[in-house]
Every structure is written in structure tokens, then in C-alpha cells.
Amino acid sequence: MVSKQFLQDEKYSELRKIIRSINSDENLNENLSEFSYNMIHGESKQLNTVLSYLYDIKLSLDFFAKYRNEDISLNTINKLTKLDFRALYSNRKIHNVSPFSQRRLLSSWRKLFKFLECENNVLSELKIKTPQTFPRSISKELIDDLLQVNDTWISYRNRALWGLLYGSGMRISEALSLNISNWDSKKESITIRGKGNVIRKVPIFKIVNQWIEEYLFRYPIQLNKNNPLFIGNKLSRLHPQTCAHILAKWRIKNNIIQKITPHSLRHSFASHVLENDCNLKILQQVLGHKNLDTTSRYVSIEDKKLENSFMKIME
């Protein structure tokens, strides 16, 4: 079976772990393997996106096993009801799961139901309202603190990575999928393979270009154009969860209350360039948004800031 063969590739080790950790029958595991293969090779989804789908599905199945008091199987999925999903939603809400994660979970299940061609697709009519949330940008002063370095190669790697995310607005998954060959130091640009397998070339600031050069000068293994641009302690491609953990540790160490994630650096880039009158259409191309509506939410954020500032003046 093709799906089982593709999971043997080391870069899909996280997918293997999640599927194997699901306490279900072999038939469901095979279908989840096929689902993963189809998402990556059929729909050109990024690996991190598919990992999110499977993680959501695993958490859901763990809950359904306890809630329904039965072993999980492919037959279980066919018997799921709206009541099951409302119970799951309520349970996650009690545990303060964010509205974004709630929406993503439902999206993961809709993808799986569609792939399995379930006759009883309970989510086709199920709509759970979640409040719209807007990203919070990081202050420029805080970003300056984040970009400080010490004498370790990891410190220079972090500065290059954070600087690239904030200086170009690319997604963390896009940055970590880069090889050294994707970076053009002379043209000060990077070629990215983004969502939907769409390739785009993004210009980078001269200072970010310099930070990448300084990091690669300290690159701990022999440079090869096919090497990952950003590597971890084990000298293999850096993982998104590792990046989130690094930022969380830095935030705690520096007594910073605001939550800082790799994605908030992307949001900050968008907000700050709009503050400097960047054209919305250009920003859409740089961020790699398929729809202009996605990009335009940053205008709503800036308008809200302006309104808040005005109200403070009038107090």
C-alpha cells in the first residue's frame, strides 16, 4: 500500500507516531494513513497542516472513546452524532481551548469525513459559532530585545529565523522548510513553497540578509546547498514546536506577559508595514494569502487601534 510506504520516510516520523498512538483497529489506522497521503500528495497540503489535522482527530477520538465508552474503530466514526461533537466542543471550551483551535478541529473532521465518503456526515449541517479573533502584534521594542545575540551559533540562528519571520512575514512552516539553496544572498531574496504548493519569491531586508550570512558563517556542519537552512541541536531540520518552545522560554526568562509565538511575528510584520502605508495588494502577495479578505483583517486591526487612540484623547 502506497500510504504505508510513504510513512516510512523519516520526514513523516511525526505522522507515524500520531497514527500509531491512536488506540483503534487496523482498518482505521490504514484509512488515516491513506488520508495523510492524500492530503500531502493529492491536495498539496503542508506537512505541518496534516500533522494538525491528525492531532485534532486523535484528541477527538480519545474523547469519543471515553464519552461513548467503546473502543474506537472505523465503525465508530460512521456512528458519530451531532451530540458527540457538541459534547467534544463543550469539553474543549471548559479547558479554555481557543476559538481558532475549535474551528480548526471541525475543519479537520470535515476533511476526514469527505475523504472517507461517510454517508452520515454529521458536520455537513453542524455550525458552532465562535467569536472572531484578531492577532495581537508585538511592539518594535520587544522585537529588538528578541533579536539580541550572544556568542553561540544557536543564538545567531535564532536571530536569523526571528528576523526572517518578522522581516518577510513568512509562515514558520515555510521558513523551516527552506534549504540553503532557497536563499539568494546577492539578490536579497528567498524562494518559498507556500500553501497549495504555490511558489513565490520574497524580498528580504538587507539586515536580515546579513543576519543569515552571519548565522551560516557559524553553521555547525559543512555547508551544502541542499542542507536545511535552519537546523536544531541534533543538526537536523528545526521543528515548529521547538521554535515555539524557545520563544516561550525567552518570554518567561524576561518576565514578559504577552504571548509570543512564531506566528505572532508574521502578524507583527503585517501590522507594522500597514502602519507605514503599505499597499494591501502588495501585502497579500508577500504574505502568500489566496484571498484579499484574509489580508484585509489587518486593516480592521489598525482601524480599531486608531479608534482606541481617539477615544483615549477624548477622555
Layout of secondary structure:
Layout: H1 2-6, H2 13-21, H3 26-42, H4 47-68, H5 74-79, H6 82-94, H7 99-116, H8 140-146, H9 153-168, H10 172-176, E1 183-184, E2 189-193, E3 199-203, H11 206-217, H12 240-253, H13 262-275, H14 280-287, H15 292-314
Antiparallel strand pairs: 1-2, 2-3
Helix pairs in contact: 2-3, 2-4, 4-7, 9-11, 9-13, 13-15, 14-15
From the N-terminal CA to the C-terminal CA, the straight-line distance is 68 Å
From the spread of the alpha carbons, the general shape counts as globular
Determine the number of helices (DSSP H or I, runs of at least 4 residues): 15
Order of adjacent strands in the largest pleated sheet: 1-2-3
Find the structural class using helix and strand composition.
mainly alpha
Give me the strand/helix succession. Answer: HHHHHHHHHHEEEHHHHH
Q: Supply the CATH superfamily name of the largest domain.
A: Intergrase catalytic core
Strand content: under 5%
Largest sheet: 3 strands, antiparallel
Secondary structure: helix percent: 55-70%
Supply the CATH architecture of the largest domain.
Answer: Orthogonal Bundle
Overall number of strands: 3
The average pLDDT is 79
Overall CATH class of the largest domain: Mainly Alpha
Q: Which parts are unreliable, with pLDDT below 50 for 5 consecutive residues or more?
A: 299-315
Rg (C-alpha, Å): 22 Å
Q: What number of structural domains do the residues give? A: 2
CATH topology of the largest domain: hpI Integrase, Chain A
GO molecular function: DNA binding
InterPro entries: CB, DNA_brk_join_enz, Integrase-like_cat_sf, Integrase_catalytic, Integrase_recombinase_N, Tyrosine_recombinase_XerCD
Keywords: DNA integration, DNA recombination, DNA-binding
Organism: Candidatus Cytomitobacter indipagum
